[in-house]
């Protein structure tokens, strides 16, 4: 969710090995000239997603292309990928899918990056322990076997002109460029005035060189005994982290997990745009207040290429 762009990449090649990337085949050819010189450059496109509340969000990306020069958006497409891929966007939280790998194209500045999406479905929480599926078509090939489609997911014109990735200032291809595209599920699906689900995707591109990583942990003070709420014991895993970008005032809630069962719950965000943030924790329902060390909320600074860590300790909980 935290995305901003200026495209240039040189020193990040060694850190690509850190990404939990899913390698996907690249198929495509350059079909139009950008502005700039005739030399070639390389572009790699990675796809990720910020955390959200939707249970499942599957899309089929049929084509990825660059559109024209800075002042000539109608000059044609430079196709980067034309082999369809279907992916659940929510599996990309904290990781990436490599959609385009080292595509060689004419160097220069391109006005737009676009994704052509030819289908999709979402599974939403009904709030009563059940879920419902809304799909672009009841016969959409990406649906799970035996799925019951409750209603339509509208995807207006995305299968033709495609979805524009927000890249302020265009995309400058010179030498090697790695572009991280965030398909923000939390802000890309919603209901219209008539109650229908509509896909209005928010895709943001970020130069990998302008991001840093953040690891958040939450543990419990040994002297603290967690209370029960409505007959159920509160667990540390029910707490979430909340990261707020101080420049945009946007907040994302992040689930914390204890993968190695050591009692420390954590979340790793490998791609956070450099800048100032505020980190807080969100208690589960029924908790009226809680205290942590350091005191929450707390400031967090992300530097380009840096690795920040915030270690929180829960030391007080108040429940009715």
Give the topology:
Layout: E1 21-23, E2 40-48, E3 56-69, E4 72-81, E5 85-88, E6 96-106, E7 108-125, E8 131-135, E9 149-154, E10 163-165, E11 171-173, E12 176-183, H1 185-188, E13 189-191, E14 197-199, E15 203-207, E16 211-220, E17 228-229, E18 232-233, E19 240-245, E20 251-255, E21 265-273, E22 275-282, E23 289-293, E24 298-302, E25 307-318
Parallel strand pairs: 1-6, 2-12, 8-9, 9-14, 16-25
Antiparallel strand pairs: 2-6, 3-4, 3-5, 3-7, 7-8, 7-10, 7-11, 12-15, 13-14, 16-21, 17-18, 19-20, 19-22, 22-24, 23-25
Describe the protein in words.
The protein is mainly beta and 320 residues long. Helix content is 1%, strand content 53%. The strands form five sheets. Strands 3, 4, 5, 7, 8, 9, 10, 11, 13 and 14 form a ten-stranded mixed beta sheet that branches. Strand 13 (189-191) and strand 14 form a beta hairpin. The protein is globular. The chain starts with 20 loop residues before the first strand and ends with a strand.
Summarize the model shown.
The protein contains 1 helix and 25 strands. By secondary structure, the chain is an all-beta fold.
Strand content: over 45%
Parts with pLDDT < 50 across at least 5 consecutive residues: 1-33, 70-74
Main β-sheet description: 10 strands, mixed
What is the total tally of β strands?
25
Cα-to-Cα separation, first versus last residue = 35 Å
Number of distinct helices? 1
Could you report the average pLDDT, rounded to the nearest whole number? 78
Please give the radius of gyration in angstroms.
Answer: 21 Å
Shape: globular
* DSSP helix fraction: under 10%
Structural class: mainly beta
SSE run? EEEEEEEEEEEEHEEEEEEEEEEEEE
């Amino acid at each position: 969710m935290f995305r901003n762009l200026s495209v240039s990449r040189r020193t990040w090649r060694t850190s690509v090995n850190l990404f939990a990337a899913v390698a996907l085949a690249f198929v495509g050819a350059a079909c139009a000239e950008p502005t700039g010189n005739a030399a070639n450059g390389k572009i790699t496109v990675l796809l990720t997603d910020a955390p959200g509340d939707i249970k499942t969000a599957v899309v089929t990306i049929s084509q990825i292309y660059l559109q024209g020069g800075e002042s000539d958006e109608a000059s044609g497409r430079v196709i980067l990928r034309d082999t369809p891929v279907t992916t659940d966007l929510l599996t990309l939280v904290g990781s990436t899918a490599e959609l385009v790998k080292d595509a060689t194209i004419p160097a220069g500045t391109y006005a737009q990056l676009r994704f052509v999406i030819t289908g999709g479905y979402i599974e939403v929480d009904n709030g009563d322990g059940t879920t419902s599926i809304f799909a672009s078509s009841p016969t959409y090939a990406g649906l799970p076997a035996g799925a019951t489609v409750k209603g339509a997911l509208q995807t207006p014109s995305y299968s033709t002109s495609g979805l524009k990735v927000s890249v302020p200032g265009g995309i400058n291809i010179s030498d090697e460029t790695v572009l991280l595209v965030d398909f923000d599920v939390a802000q890309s699906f919603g209901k219209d005035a008539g109650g229908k689900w509509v896909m209005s995707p928010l895709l943001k591109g970020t130069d990998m060189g302008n991001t840093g990583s953040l690891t958040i942990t939450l543990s419990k003070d040994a002297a603290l005994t967690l209370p029960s709420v409505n007959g159920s014991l509160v667990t540390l895993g029910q707490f979430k982290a909340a990261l707020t970008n101080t420049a945009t005032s946007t907040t994302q809630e992040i689930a914390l997990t204890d993968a190695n069962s050591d009692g420390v719950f954590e979340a790793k965000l490998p791609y956070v745009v450099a800048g100032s943030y505020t980190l807080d924790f969100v208690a589960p329902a029924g908790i009226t207040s809680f205290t942590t060390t350091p005191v929450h909320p707390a400031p967090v600074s992300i530097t380009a290429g840096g690795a920040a860590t915030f270690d929180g300790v829960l030391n007080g909980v108040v429940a009715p």
